[in-house]
């Protein structure tokens, strides 16, 4: 069955599946977010609880992203939308809260964004080659993209039902 099935009354294709390209794009960006969280788990392997938290976030996002890619379930799109907005809020708080690792030098903390302040790893690389504020902003942008695409899919699925 094609992703852009005709909207006749006898067809049992979900409205989100009829959304076609936006649903697949939303799922692809969400899978990119899963990959980004898996990469961050690897980068935080020196702090086990942070690594576990990153893997948990990736594991929570993966089933919905796969479901949207394969079948385009409306509930999965709604969950992706909600989770993406929640992650934007969490990362924004982590970046903007007093005493955060954003690198402003408040409270006796030095700037965290200088490469000289990053510890060298055993293999010669730098732990966190991308400064933490920049990587958190990348995640925020990625999650905003997931939320925007999920909203597009939800809107388009309502349009498909109305037609």
Task: Put the structure in a nutshell.
The chain contains 5 helices and no strands. The chain has 163 residues and is an all-alpha fold.
Report what the structure shows.
The protein is mostly helical and 163 residues long. 64% of the residues lie in helices and 0% in strands. The chain has helices at residues 15-18, 21-43, 48-70, 74-96, 132-162. α2 packs antiparallel against α3 and α4 (74-96) packs antiparallel against α5 (132-162). The two termini are 20 Å apart.
What key phrases describe this protein's structure?
single chain, 163 residues, mainly alpha, 64% helix, globular, disordered N terminus
Strand-helix topology:
Blueprint: H1 15-18, H2 21-43, H3 48-70, H4 74-96, H5 132-162
Helix pairs in contact: 2-3, 2-5, 3-4, 4-5
Helix vs. strand class: mainly alpha
Overall shape: it is: globular
| Main sheet properties | none
> Which runs of at least 5 residues are low in confidence (pLDDT < 50)?
1-8, 103-118
Rg from Cα: 19 Å
Q: In angstroms, what separates the terminal alpha carbons? A: 20 Å
């Amino acid at each position: 069955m094609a992703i852009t099935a005709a909207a006749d009354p006898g067809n049992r294709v979900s409205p989100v599946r009829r959304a076609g390209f936006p649903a697949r794009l939303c799922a692809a960006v969400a899978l990119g977010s899963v990959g980004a969280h898996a990469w961050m788990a690897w980068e935080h392997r020196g702090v086990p609880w942070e690594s576990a938290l990153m893997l948990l976030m990736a594991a929570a996002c993966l089933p919905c992203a796969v479901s949207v890619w394969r079948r385009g379930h409306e509930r999965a799109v709604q969950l992706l939308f909600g989770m993406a907005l929640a992650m934007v809020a969490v990362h924004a708080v982590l970046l903007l809260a007093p005493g955060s690792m954003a690198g402003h030098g408040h409270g006796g903390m030095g700037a965290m964004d200088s490469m000289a302040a990053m510890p060298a790893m055993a293999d010669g690389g730098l732990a966190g080659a991308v400064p933490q504020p920049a990587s958190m902003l990348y995640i925020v942008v990625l999650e905003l993209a997931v939320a925007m695409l999920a909203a597009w899919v939800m809107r388009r699925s309502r349009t498909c039902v109305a037609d």
